[in-house]
């Protein structure tokens, strides 16, 4: 048993002082009791938050998922745990089918060996069914239309696929969403030129999430003199759409963070790092994607940029930084900022029965923070996997 005493627990609704008792990977009691036979940590003056859940993460610590090997996958898991991420969904980029199949095989091995890092919950396929006009840093050579024969081959090749990002305006993308629903996989909209009518059809066919809101996404335009809504405005208009935001202070400025929060609210917003291999690494040249087929980028000013510096190329953010930013830059209450990194992603990914809040019977995934919201201890399923210093 592990006992955590005298901390301020961050719930979705309030901050309260309580003791926690952990046993067999679970939180077994919350209250004022003290158990004499338990290992004890006195956390006076500290916060305990639920473990952060990152549903869009490409890499970190010098490794990228598209490197494809077991060691790289484990390095990502181990590099992000020190920033409070206890669960994550590693995310692909557009690539050759053979790269994906190799990655799926090694992901299975990495999951079985991962006893030091954040828990791998499933994989997020970002592409290859994306708009070339909104490709961003995605490699256009590997973009495809979603033909049933192809996407069924990809998706049926792994049990770990939890989410697929696609552009719903592309022929075949609505049928793809229907297939994903049958498989219990989240259909997400991203790298898209969709207009309002495309977004309405997407909603009706099961798309429910907008990938890195605003980035690689159509907005209001004129067609024959009339204004036509894009994916951004449709994301605001339809309450059914949840949105990801990269709150690193660069992809979205503070005033835009405030607007998104004001309109969508913490129950519909999920904080994501969208981090590439440069997260947790020094500034300078780096590679987005695999070392073999990736794109050279530059890390500077706290963000990854394309070599011409005309566009961002993923982020180097960490989850703790996103939470702090929502409080400091967007004036969001602590409980709401933490919710966007915990309960909201847990609900979106269908794991809220296990994770996302500090509740009796749930997994003991916890982050101990000091009053400056810096990570000091990280616990995954009752196991202390990181301790500062």
Automatic annotation (TrEMBL):
<dbReference type="InterPro" id="IPR011059">
    <property type="entry name" value="Metal-dep_hydrolase_composite"/>
</dbReference>
<dbReference type="InterPro" id="IPR032466">
    <property type="entry name" value="Metal_Hydrolase"/>
</dbReference>
<feature type="active site" description="Proton donor/acceptor">
    <location>
        <position position="274"/>
    </location>
</feature>
<keyword id="KW-0378">Hydrolase</keyword>
<feature type="domain" description="Amidohydrolase-related">
    <location>
        <begin position="47"/>
        <end position="384"/>
    </location>
</feature>
<dbReference type="InterPro" id="IPR003764">
    <property type="entry name" value="GlcNAc_6-P_deAcase"/>
</dbReference>
<dbReference type="GO" id="GO:0046872">
    <property type="term" value="F:metal ion binding"/>
</dbReference>
<keyword id="KW-0119">Carbohydrate metabolism</keyword>
<comment type="pathway">
    <text>Amino-sugar metabolism; N-acetylneuraminate degradation; D-fructose 6-phosphate from N-acetylneuraminate: step 4/5.</text>
</comment>
<dbReference type="GO" id="GO:0008448">
    <property type="term" value="F:N-acetylglucosamine-6-phosphate deacetylase activity"/>
</dbReference>
<comment type="similarity">
    <text>Belongs to the metallo-dependent hydrolases superfamily. NagA family.</text>
</comment>
<dbReference type="Pfam" id="PF01979">
    <property type="entry name" value="Amidohydro_1"/>
</dbReference>
<feature type="binding site">
    <location>
        <position position="191"/>
    </location>
    <ligand>
        <name>Zn(2+)</name>
    </ligand>
</feature>
<feature type="binding site">
    <location>
        <position position="126"/>
    </location>
    <ligand>
        <name>Zn(2+)</name>
    </ligand>
</feature>
<feature type="binding site">
    <location>
        <position position="212"/>
    </location>
    <ligand>
        <name>Zn(2+)</name>
    </ligand>
</feature>
<dbReference type="InterPro" id="IPR006680">
    <property type="entry name" value="Amidohydro-rel"/>
</dbReference>
<protein>
    <recommendedName>
        <fullName>N-acetylglucosamine-6-phosphate deacetylase</fullName>
        <ecNumber>3.5.1.25</ecNumber>
    </recommendedName>
</protein>
<keyword id="KW-0479">Metal-binding</keyword>
<dbReference type="GO" id="GO:0006046">
    <property type="term" value="P:N-acetylglucosamine catabolic process"/>
</dbReference>
């Amino acid at each position: 048993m592990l006992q955590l005493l005298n901390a301020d627990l961050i719930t979705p609704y309030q901050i309260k002082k309580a003791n926690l008792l952990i046993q067999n990977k679970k939180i077994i009691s919350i209250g004022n009791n003290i158990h004499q036979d338990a290992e004890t940590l006195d956390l006076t003056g500290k916060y305990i938050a639920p473990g952060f859940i990152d549903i869009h993460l490409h890499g970190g610590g010098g490794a990228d998922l598209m490197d494809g090997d077991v060691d790289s996958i484990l390095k990502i898991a181990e590099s992000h745990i020190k920033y409070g991420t206890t669960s994550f969904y590693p995310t692909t980029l557009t690539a050759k089918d053979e790269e994906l199949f190799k990655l799926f095989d090694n992901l299975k091995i990495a999951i079985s060996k991962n006893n030091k890092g954040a828990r791998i919950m499933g994989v997020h396929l970002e592409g290859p069914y994306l708009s070339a006009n909104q490709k961003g840093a995605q490699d256009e050579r590997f973009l495809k239309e979603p033909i049933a024969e192809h996407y069924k081959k990809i998706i049926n090749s792994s049990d770990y696929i939890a989410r697929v990002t696609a552009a719903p305006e592309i022929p075949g993308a609505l049928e793809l969403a229907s297939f994903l629903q049958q498989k219990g996989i989240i259909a997400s909209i991203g790298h898209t030129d969709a207009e309002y009518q495309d977004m309405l059809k997407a909603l009706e066919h099961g798309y429910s999430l907008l990938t890195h809101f605003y980035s690689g996404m159509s907005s209001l335009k004129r067609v024959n003199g009339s204004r036509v809504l894009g994916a951004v405005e449709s994301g605001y208009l339809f309450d059914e759409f949840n949105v990801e935001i990269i709150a690193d202070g660069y992809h979205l400025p503070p005033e835009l963070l405030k607007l998104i929060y004001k309109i969508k609210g913490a129950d519909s917003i999920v904080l994501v790092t969208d981090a590439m291999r440069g997260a947790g690494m020094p500034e300078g040249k780096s590679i987005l994607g695999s070392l073999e087929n990736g794109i050279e980028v530059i890390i500077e000013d706290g963000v990854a940029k394309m070599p011409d510096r005309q566009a961002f190329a993923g982020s180097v953010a960490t989850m703790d930084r996103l939470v702090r930013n929502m409080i400091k830059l967007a004036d969001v209450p602590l409980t709401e900022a933490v919710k966007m990194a915990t309960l909201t992603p847990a609900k979106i990914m269908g794991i809220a029965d296990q994770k996302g809040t500090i509740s009796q019977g749930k997994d003991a995934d916890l982050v101990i923070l000091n009053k400056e919201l810096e990570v000091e201890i990280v616990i995954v399923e009752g196991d202390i996997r990181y301790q500062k210093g």
